Amino acid sequence: MIFKRLIACACCTLFTLGAFALEGDSLVTITALKNEYQFKWNGQTSRVEIKEKLSNTYVSNSYGVSYPVSEFYNDNTSIDAVTCKVDGHNLRSFKPTYTYYSQDDVFYSDAKICYFPMDMPKKGSIGTVTFEETLNDPRYFTSIYFSDAAIVQQGEVSLKIPRWMKVDIKEMNFNSFGIKKTTEYVSGEDADVITYSFANIPAMKREANSPGPTYIYPHLLVLCKSAAPGGKQITYFGSLADQYAWYRELVKNVAGDQAVISAKAKELTAGLTADMDKIKAIFYYVQDNIRYIAFEDGMAGFRPEKADEVLRKKYGDCKGMANLTKALLVSQGYDARLCWLGTKHIAYDYQTPSMAVDNHMICALNYKGKIYYLDATESYLSLNEYAERIQGRQVLMEDGDKYILNKIPYAPPLQNSTNQLSKLSVSGTSLVGKVNYTWKGEDKESILSGLNSIKHENTDKAMVKYLADDNNDYTINNLKLSSTANPDKDLTAAFDLEHKNAVNVFSKDYYINIDSQKELADFTFKPAVRKLDYWFAYKMNINSQTELDIPANYKAATVPADLNIVNPDYEFHISYTQLPNKLVYKKKLLIKNTSLPKKRFEQWNHDVEQLSKAYNETLILKPTN
Q: What is the per-residue pLDDT across 271-301, written as a single tens digit (0 to 9) for each?
């Protein structure tokens, strides 16, 4: 049963209730899936509810299968009944467990789970599971997925929509699945029944660095516009203006105790005179001192906690951190506003009024006619640097009772960079010398996130391990690491290097493989194994230069060929330059487009093989006489 609906998350991570958290399960096959949804008016509560009946029929593919059945719900959903039979019989001691669901980065949540084991003793045993549920707010009825954690051989999804209920349905990712749609009018209920039939839907599969499920799996995006039961008019999200108005109500009166906020802002900006210095002091304080924790709490999943409470607790979700940033800035007279957005993980934008389109909140600062987007959940990015996950995304910015729709700028690959300069010489069978590194942007953030997750006294040890890449022959001494406290500054490292066994000596000739890092070497994909596109975490810009002193009375007898691979998505460059008594090795690896579609795996594999081959080429130094 795993799941059928994507609940929109407002907590910076797309919290998919159900099968997205699971791998496709080969222990069972779903031979029949039948999910029914019906809009009904509840006169006692004066609200529209969605009644759901979700039924799966499973067949076991092995003997002695104990299949975990689970269904997720929350404070907007109630599970009214659960039934389970195996081979036509009720399960002995059948007792579902109902509890709160926890995930690593969810600190407090109203997400709940109902689960139980379904024991299927024989190969070919047939299990049937039915959940009956009620969803109490159409705004939260956002998506219906046709996939499940196991293969679906035959499936049917139906929606009964009374004519007094205005709903738009968008069909997403239907290509190649052969999904059939029928519509029937039921005159006695003055309702339309829309039915989707499908067959042989593959199991959901989670792969690292893959697009979010909204890009991949066939599903319906359900847009509840309005209702008029018995002439009573109810507006949901008929337009983006309606959605903003609802959001606007949620963020009223969340500034908190202004005296507390103002006092803290004055403390943070004491002694500063330049506006930008004050702005940075406030932004970097929230980045560095408020622990980011994702919340899932029904209505609170969309309403920020009061700014003074976030300040007091020293933790918050993206909304709380954005709200605190705004409150501190506003208290100092700056024009700061809240912004809603969907990260790159979500395929939709605000052309579709739905709670499914956004999962994140940040603060926008309008300063001297320029908009700065402040995402305090990115702990180590400086002002005006934007993480890959939000670049180019639409933002819904508050503007009183109206809204402003903007886009976060794209950042060039140069925002993120790793720059290395090595000056080495031959010493027996080792390369020795000095190495300097500089990291910027998300490269810097990635390293600092790792370093700051460990005890301070272990920082240098961890950095040495990272730089050596677990190579026991790569000996680092006298490491000097720059301060990790200032987001405006690049992260730098300098050290003395002894790279043992980097030189092979035959007779008097030196055989040297000059590149010890070999980024992306053998990083290829097997199309038969990798099913989904690959998304790099962020744009990559690696620049490495190694200056090798040629020993006296030696010359470079064999210098490997240069490599230049250029296409619109990435570039690989390697070059060797001979100078008097010196050879300069340069490498540049550039990932310009973070999305690598599966159809381009073959070209990528070919290019990476060429890069790996270039890495393995040997520089040969021979005596001059």
A: 999 999 999 999 999 999 999 887 654 555 6
Interval 573-619: pLDDT, tens: 999 999 999 999 999 999 999 999 999 999 999 999 999 999 999 99
pLDDT for 3 equals 31
**Within a domain: residue 8?**
no
360 in Cβ contact with 346 (< 8 Å): no
Report the alpha-carbon angle 586-591-593, nearest 5: 160
Flag whether 185 is in a domain: yes
How many CA atoms lie less than 13 Å away from 334 in the CB half-sphere? Answer: 31
What would the two tokens of residue 41 be? Answer: 């008016």
Q: What is the pLDDT of residues 345-402, one digit of tens each?
A: 999 999 999 999 999 999 999 999 999 999 999 999 999 999 999 999 999 999 999 9
φ/ψ bin of 81: left (φ > 0), alpha (ψ from -120 to 50), beta (otherwise):
beta
pLDDT range class, residue 176, cuts 50, 70, 90 = confident
Whole-number percent of the chain with pLDDT over 90:
84
- Report in angstroms the alpha-carbon separations of 434 from 373, 420, 477, 480, 497: 39, 11, 10, 11, 6
**Co-location of 221 and 273 in the same domain:** no
Q: Check residue 293 and give its pLDDT.
A: 82
The CATH number that applies at residue 557 is 2.60.120.1130
Provide the 3-class DSSP secondary structure of residue 28: strand
DSSP 82: E
Tokens for 310?
């976030």
**Rounded Cα gap, residues 582 and 72, in angstroms:** 65
Pairing of strands 491-499, 474-481: antiparallel
**Helix, coil or strand: residue 490:** coil
Q: How many other CB atoms are found less than 10 A from the CB of residue 335?
A: 13
- Give the residue from 340, 319, 301, 344 showing the smallest Cα distance to 9: 301
On whether the CB atoms of residues 551 and 431 are closer than 8 A, the answer is no
d(CA 172, CA 214): 8
**Pairing, β 97-100 against β 112-120:** antiparallel
Distances (CA, A) of 15 to 4, 102, 251: 14, 11, 21
SS3 of 316, please?
strand
The residue from 411, 428, 463 where one domain ends is 411
Strand-strand pairing, 540-549 and 417-427: parallel
Q: Is pLDDT above 90 for 104? A: no
Task: Report how far residue 381's alpha carbon sits from residue 283's, in angstroms, rounded to the nearest whole number.
Answer: 11
Q: Are residues 183 and 282 in the same domain?
A: no
Q: Which domain holds residue 532?
A: 414-623
Contact status, residue 464 vs residue 445, Cβ threshold 8 Å: no
> What's the pLDDT at 458?
81
Residue 14 resides in a domain: no
Indicate if 106 and 221 belong to the same structural domain.
yes
Q: Identify whether residues 92 and 155 lie together within a single domain.
A: yes
Determine, yes or no, domain membership for 513.
yes
